[in-house]
Design a protein that fits this description.
Chain A has helices spanning 2-24, 32-56, 65-81, 86-111, 115-134, 146-153, 170-188, 190-200, 202-207, 212-238, 249-261, 271-290, 295-318, and strands at residues 139-140, 155-157, 167-169, 240-241. With 319 residues, chain A is mainly alpha-helical. The mean pLDDT of chain A is 93. Classes of the chains: A mainly alpha (319), B alpha/beta (503). Bound molecules: adenosine-5'-triphosphate and magnesium ion (MG).
């Protein structure tokens, strides 16, 4: 009984938030246009949070995702400005994510550094590298190919289902695809189930003949790639890249996973629960902005809500 | 002042399933009261209720007729109750002394700084009460062997402030599961002394021999319900077993029917490592080799050699005519399976389900095949007599003995070629023990070789074809135990102890 209350409390919270904004913003909140808008706004955070879930399943986490997102945008933009085609820019950015993620995984799994320390270190390394290769400036304008920035502006027209003039943005679709992939990896594949085993007891998992080091590196690599994808989405959306633009992603992504963890039976991260966390953060942000709540107050509110949710869940677990 | 404690109408259910239904218990001063029952019968649940660590659905407690409340661990402590719970919960990073005095007002200078000297003295005297002088109280508790950790826990329950009122109740939940016979005897001496001082004692164990030896009364639980309470003098071991299980029980050790194979499966030649010295043996297919000795004298290390966890510094180690596995990954791939010594830290993912725990080493391919796994898990659950609500019940919700069965099920899930068993039946009830012995026997007659270590000497004698006797990591002898008495086997441990101390 109480376990269920706790598990679904966070979902209930999301519904209450939606009801609150629907009542207070009757004309603008619960409209197709706004909802599509929200889905696009949260898509980058969503991608980072979904892939962050992969490492958090092992009780690890990755503080470097924000600076990796910035770095990947810069890598793509620099390649574009050197005249390379879109696929090379995108490929280069994803490669940066892969290599950076593997490096995180190497530090954590092979060298044995605590994830907090290791990824705090790479956070500054990635960020410094982004400044270095961009000379600290924003890359924009002509340097960014129209095809690249066009991606974020377009989508699948929804006229056929009666929503005249609206499009389902490609960014939203990207978020959904990443969600689906992470869900398959974590819930359907043996790879993901071994990650949950590592999170459950790393020593028991090792003694069961599981290649713990390799799996951990693989998981960090996926998180790195996720961060790179988010960086590309961001760069496409603002048609520019600067070395700090991903900075806000890391804290929100971790907060989203924590919010989701309150829904796990054993407090474990689940990617669908992370989606609920992302929606809570994204919808709060959208609604409060529309209600013209000051952005500082917004931050205080969001922080308080994350703490409240996790605290209730921790107290509920104690019975 | 010794007092009689009555616990009445104890009820507790988890998610609708009753773990205890209306059990009552009276504990008299100066008597040792045994609490017995199969795995999952509700013994630990009862103890957690009276310790105030799990809220009861209903419970009334009286001390000499006057009601008391037990809503928290603090209440139970204040009431003069001391507990040694089933699961080891020492703090591995702290020193032995700190562990022993954890929760005590402690020794401080000026109420601020730790007075290390006084702390060590108090800890030493607590250990001395158990007759132990060979544990250094300054070392990290995590580095001790399992038996020593248990002794540290027991010592910590025995500490009390000078002048404070003597505790009226001591509760032991399977204290001897991790102890050797010698260590157990020391514990029994302590219990005898506590009893003489007028304390009431509640004692849980699956070792019915020791129950008959040290207890005065016994209460039997079955499926959370009270079956009978009677003085030990009026009952017998067989009668207790019958009351626990409600049926006639297969007991003892299944005899070997087929003879051992002819092919050597694994061999150690002059193996020396950090903790081992000059180990030599050859194991044939279907053979069961025991490794035994005083506690922590290299048994675990011999098993871990074949899992690639312990490095041999000299000598050669072979498995199936080639070099032994260099790491657990290779080991499991080549058909080696392992039941580690400590189920909670080395064997189980406590927050995951039975299915994921038992099948983890056996996942194949990219995608999970849920249906086949559930079927497989169900089969294993029947094999090891697991009491669980289903294949996906989370392991921390299982009783201690049932958790042990999960670890065993994991090892036998995929027809191993070499089975490494470290205390395979720790905490398992008599009936399920026989099932596990039968499974081991069945595997061995199918050609699987087994190396097992156990502090349960009758178990070693009943199951093993040969037993390798160790002292301090050195091979003393390999004996054939058929027809031996536990005392004879124990004597060989000491026999060597003496000879090795000769100049
Ligand atoms: N937290 C929990 N959630 C759900 N069920 C539980 C929980 N704790 C115990 N149980 C159930 O209660 C029953 C009694 O468990 P308990 O631990 O008291 O058994 P026990 O008699 O101590 O057994 P053992 O000899 O194996 O230690 C078991 O069926 C167990 O699965
Ligand atoms: Mg128990």
């Amino acid at each position: 009984m109480t376990a269920h209350m706790r598990q679904f409390g966070t979902l209930l919270g999301l519904i209450l938030i939606i009801v609150f904004f629907t009542v207070n913003l009757p004309d603008t909140f619960l409209t197709a246009r706004n909802l599509i808008n929200v889905s696009q706004q949260i898509s980058m955070l969503a991608v980072v949070a979904f892939t962050m879930t992969i490492v958090m399943v092992m009780n690890d986490f990755d503080l470097s995702v924000g600076s990796m997102a910035s770095l990947s945008g810069i890598v793509a933009a620099v390649l574009f400005s050197m005249g390379y085609p879109i696929w090379v820019g995108v490929g280069g950015a994803l490669l940066a994510g892969l290599v950076g993620g593997l490096f995180n995984g190497f530090l954590v799994a092979v060298i044995g550094i605590l994830p907090f320390v290791a990824t705090l270190g790479t956070l500054t390394i990635f960020s410094g590298t982004a400044f270095l290769i961009s000379d600290g400036r924003t890359i924009f304008g002509r340097d960014i190919p129209a095809g690249f920035s066009g991606f974020a502006r377009s989508g699948i027209p929804l006229d056929t289902i009666g929503l005249e003039g609206l499009k389902l943005p490609y960014l939203t679709i990207t978020g959904v695809i990443v969600l689906l992939l992470v869900w398959i990896i974590l819930e359907q594949m043996n790879f993901g189930r071994r990650l949950y085993a590592i999170g459950g007891n790393i020593e028991a998992t090792r003694l069961s003949g599981i290649k713990v080091k390799r799996l951990r590196m693989g998981a960090f690599a996926l998180t790195g790639i996720g961060a790179a994808i988010a960086g590309l989405m961001y760069a496409s959306r603002v048609a520019s890249a600067n070395p700090t633009q991903g900075a806000g992603l890391m804290l929100d992504a971790i907060a989203a996973v924590f919010l989701g963890m309150t829904m796990g039976k054993e407090g474990e991260p689940r990617v669908l629960a992370t989606l609920v966390g992302v929606l809570i953060l994204g919808i709060l942000d959208n609604g409060l902005t529309q209600m013209k709540v000051d952005s500082y107050i917004r931050e205080i509110l969001i922080g308080a809500i994350v703490i409240a949710a996790v605290a209730t869940s921790a107290l509920g677990r104690r019975r | 002042m010794p007092s009689t404690l009555s616990f009445n109408g104890l009820r507790k259910s988890y998610g609708g399933a009753p773990a205890l239904s209306d059990v009552s218990l009276t504990l008299a001063p100066g008597r040792v009261h045994a609490l017995v029952g199969e795995n999952g019968a509700g013994k630990s649940t009862l103890i957690k209720l009276i310790a105030g660590v799990v809220p009861a659905d209903t419970m009334t407690v009286t001390k000499d007729g006057a009601p008391i409340t037990l809503n928290s661990a603090g209440d139970a402590l204040a009431a003069g109750f001391r507990f040694i719970h089933q699961e080891l919960n020492i703090v591995p990073q702290l020193s032995v002394a700190e562990n022993i005095l954890l929760g005590q007002p402690g020794a401080t200078r000026y109420g601020l700084f730790v007075d290390w000297k006084a702390l060590s003295q108090k800890a030493n005297s607590a250990l001395a009460e158990l007759g132990i002088d060979d544990i250094d109280v300054r070392v990290h508790a995590g580095g001790l062997g399992v038996g020593d950790q248990m002794l540290v826990k027991i010592a910590s329950a025995l500490v009390r402030d000078e002048g404070a009122e003597a505790p009226g109740l001591y509760v032991f939940d399977e204290p001897t599961a991790a102890l050797s016979d010698t260590e157990s005897e020391k514990l029994f001496d302590v219990i005898e002394r506590l009893k003489k001082d007028g304390a009431a004692i509640l004692y849980v164990s699956h070792r019915l021999g020791e129950i008959m030896q040290i207890c005065d009364d016994v209460t039997v639980l079955r499926n959370g319900a009270h079956v009978i309470t009677t003085p030990i003098a009026d009952t017998s071991r067989d009668e207790i077993v019958h009351q626990m299980t409600g049926r006639e029980l297969m007991d003892g050790y299944p005899p070997r029917i087929q003879s051992i194979g002819a092919n050597p499966v694994c061999a150690a030649k002059n193996i020396s490592s950090a903790k081992l010295d000059q180990i030599n043996f050859t194991l044939r297919d279907g053979e069961i080799l025991g490794v035994a000795g005083l506690s922590d004298c290299g048994q675990t290390e011999i098993l871990r050699l074949f899992l690639g966890l312990e490095r041999a510094l000299a000598g050669s180690l072979t498995f199936n005519t080639s070099a032994a596995p260099r790491n657990p990954v290779q080991a499991w791939q080549r058909g080696v399976a392992y039941v580690p010594r400590e189920r909670r830290s080395e064997g189980l993912m406590m927050t995951l389900g039975v299915r994921q725990n038992t099948l983890l080493p056996h996942y194949r391919g990219l995608f999970a095949n849920r249906r086949a796994e559930i079927e497989k898990t169900r089969g294993l659950e029947t094999d090891v007599k697991l009491k669980a609500v289903g294949p996906d019940q989370v392991v921390h919700e299982l009783s201690g003995g049932n958790q042990q069965k999960v670890v065993f099920a994991k090892a036998i899930a995929k027809n191993p070629r070499l089975l490494l068993l470290d205390e395979p039946t720790r905490g398992v009830d008599v009936g399920a023990k026989f099932e596990i012995y039968s499974l081991i026997r069945h595997l061995s007659e199918g050609g699987c070789s087994v190396i097992m270590s156990s502090s349960d000497l009758p178990e070693l004698i009943g199951m093993c074809d040969r037993i390798l006797i160790l002292h301090a990591g050195r091979q003393y002898d390999i004996i054939e135990p058929q027809g031996m008495q536990p005392g004879d086997l124990l004597a060989t441990f000491y026999d060597h102890h003496k000879t090795s101390e000769l100049p």
